[in-house]
Amino acid sequence: MRNNLTVGSIFGVPIGINYSWFLTLGLITLFLGLQIFPLMLPNEAPAVQWGLSLATAFAFFASVLVHEMAHALVARAFKVPVSGITLFVLGGVAQIEREARSAAAEFTITVVGPLMSFLLAALFFVIWVATGSSDSTGSIVWEWLWLINLAVGVINLAPASPFDGGRLLRSALWGLTGNFQTASRIAGWFGQGLGYALVIIGLASLAQFPGWPIDAGPLLELWLILIGLFIENSARNSYQQVMINDLLASRTAADVMAREYELIESDVSVEQVMEQVFAEDAQSFAFVTENSHVVGLLSRAAARAVADDERPQTTVESIMTPARDVRVVNSDDHLYDVLVSMDEATVSAMPVIEGGKLAGVVSSDQIDRLVNGRS
Ligand SMILES: [Zn+2]
User: Fold this and answer.
1) Would you state the pLDDT for residue 214?
2) How far is the CA of 29 from the centre of ligand 1 (A)?
3) Spatial contact of 346 and 321, defined as CB atoms under 8 Å apart
4) pLDDT exceeds cutoff 90 at 209
5) Whether residue 146 sits in one domain with residue 112
6) Per the domain annotation, does 163 fall within a domain?
7) Can you tell me the distance from the alpha carbon of 285 to that of 321, in angstroms, rounded to the nearest whole number?
8) The predicted structure's pLDDT at residue 375
9) How many A from CA of 85 to the centre of ligand 1?
């Protein structure tokens, strides 16, 4: 996720805050400080009411963090890498880098989140009871915290992506059918169906057909429609991502690479290269040879970085990436791994080796075209 502040790490899991999170923190504080605490604690000074509002909002996010931490730590125990936890406008998300290897692992990684929320709700409930289970100053924050954590646990069981319930449903179907793709497809349909159902209920409530039983007010009804659209979209994306990952894991570099590439001699000048090789936009890099051996790689970007008046006397050899520093992929590497390698090396194209010899070039554009069905 972009626009994140990294605020530290817990148990080696980096914690990030998306700027959108401050909006939610502010809204919760405003809601409690304007609407709830003045009514429930009428004898307290506004400073106390606002202080408690802010403390409750922060404690709520600490609870969300603990929920996500449960996912992250259990994922790591199943050897599924976790790149971090991010708090954002809708709560939190643990960035689990790939799918679990088994239905049981996915189920366990997912179920610990809601379980943790229920555990926190129980804990805050006990504290609330111990502090007098009243609406007093010393008790009311605990009341809100057990209610909120209970709500987080229950809402997360909604059987649709992006909620934990969507993954629980998928892993249960995966266990039953033994097929991850089938399970993903059915769970996706289910999520889309749930999304459409919410949109229809929202629209029907807005229209107030005669005899329609729900009237929650236009604001809540609009919100229901938006949530429905969000769930439908998320269910569709989640299924598409499964299909894309599947495609990337089933195809290799050899399936998409270009087998034609430019060779240039190492003693040629940058000026010549710009005129002869990089004149066409399609060519983003070329291999540099010496006595018909590949000795390096030259990118268009590196050539362009040379000032115009220095190009005639600058040789390709002096600005190329030497072969020993060039990262390569094998022609039978899966595209999923190719993308990971490109990402790590922050390049958009890589040479492909086949049987120990240079066979071609694979670029992120080619992979994009495959994924988007244009090749
Ligand atoms: Zn969760």
Assistant:
1) 76
2) 23
3) no
4) no
5) yes
6) no
7) 11
8) 41
9) 11
Collapsing DSSP to helix, strand or coil, 132 comes out as coil
- Which residues does 51 contact at the CB level (< 8 Å), separation at least 6? none
Which letter, b or e, does each residue of 89-124 get, where b requires 16 or more Cβ atoms within 10 Å of its Cβ? eebbbbbbeebbeebebbbbbbbbbbebbbbbbeeb
Distance 111 CA to ligand 1 centre (A): 8
Phi, psi for 362 (deg, rounded to 5): -115, 135
Q: Which pLDDT score, from 0 to 100, does residue 282 have?
A: 62
User: 178-202 pLDDT, tens per residue?
Assistant: 888 888 888 889 999 999 999 999 9
Give distance in angstroms: CA of 336 to centre of ligand 1.
Answer: 26
| Boundary-marking domain end, from 129, 157, 185 | 157
* DSSP 8-state assignment for residue 323: G
Cα 346 from Cα 8, distance rounded (Å): 25
The string of pLDDT tens digits covering residues 277-297 is: 887 766 667 888 888 788 888
Q: Which tens digits make up the pLDDT trace of 44-65?
A: 788 888 888 888 888 888 899 9
How many angstroms separate the alpha carbon of residue 243 from the centre of ligand 1?
A: 23
- Indicate whether 161 pLDDT > 80: no
Dist. CA 88 → ligand 1 center (Å): 13
CA of 14 to the centre of ligand 1 (A): 17
Of all residues in the chain, the percent with pLDDT exceeding 90 is: 20
Statement to judge: residues 190 and 152 lie in one domain: no
Tell me the C-alpha distance between 58 and 307, whole Å.
54
Q: If you average pLDDT over every residue of the chain, what do you get? A: 85
Could you tell me the two tokens for 158?
């909604």
Range of the domain at 298: 254-371
Please choose, from the candidates 262, 309, 312, 306, the residue with its C-alpha nearest in 3D space to the C-alpha of residue 287.
262
Residue 234 CA, ligand 1 centroid: distance in Å:
15
- CA 279, distance to chain mean position in Å, is 38
